[in-house]
């Protein structure tokens, strides 16, 4: 499968031409909106902890998100892709708001959680909290927050939750099964895979290499961010995307670091990091037949 990534001088566009695609497919990618509409429904302490923990302007974040959804409907896109940190905390109001707004879309959506989606005010960040909150995301993720897939216009869009900087053996097996279908495949995940050219900007903005399977971590920073060494399945997932053994990975889209970036993961496969939604960021993805 021949794939051509067309360079566009813009932080919010991606044009990819794909051999065998029969008609154009347009997708809107939104990430890191960091919305918070938590109220006192779950108790005053939850509300106070929620307000204290998050400094994003609630009106601006919601306005940017609403504009993105309206834009998707206005352009009649074929799908909307969301790669995590859409909300700050798995509170009842946050989840209900996100669910209700996604119901307003005229196109299918695919959403994979980020580390801020499943955290809960007053609870320690980590795998135990993720597992405690995970079930709340079933109705947003086709019943499986860990990994899911949907076919849009002949494109297989696969979402993998890597919000703890790891990919499990179960997720890796799911990915391999989806790739074996042979369809042109696009990946969604929250945390970018380590790319050397991205390291300088990430260190400048965050002080730590907050990418999956990143090099350059200091032990004290790993403890602060609660990032463990990459598991074998995590490394195998990264290798799979870089080597593209089935030849049908057309690209991957993610967020987490709040800036826009594009770089090759391997032959014919690019990783696109999209600017944060709370700052008005989005990316329009246009997939075109190669012979257009």
Short description:
The protein has 292 residues and is an alpha/beta fold. It has a single domain (3-289), classed as Purple Acid Phosphatase, chain A, domain 2 (4-Layer Sandwich), CATH 3.60.21.10.
Amount of helix: 25-40%
Number of helices: 9
Question: Any idea what the CATH superfamily is called?
Answer: Metallo-dependent phosphatases
The fold-level CATH name is Purple Acid Phosphatase, chain A, domain 2
Round the mean pLDDT to the nearest integer and report it.
94
Oligomer: single chain
What is the correct CATH architecture? Answer: 4-Layer Sandwich
Q: Please report the distance between the alpha carbons of the first and last residues.
A: 16 Å
Name the structural class.
alpha/beta
Q: What does the largest sheet look like?
A: 6 strands, mixed
For the record, what CATH class applies? Alpha Beta
Bulk shape: globular
User: What is the β-strand count?
Assistant: 12
| Largest sheet strand order | 1-2-12-3-4-5
Number of domains: 1
- Uncertain runs are none
What is the rounded Rg? 18 Å
H/E element order: EEEHHEHEHHEEHEHHHEEEE
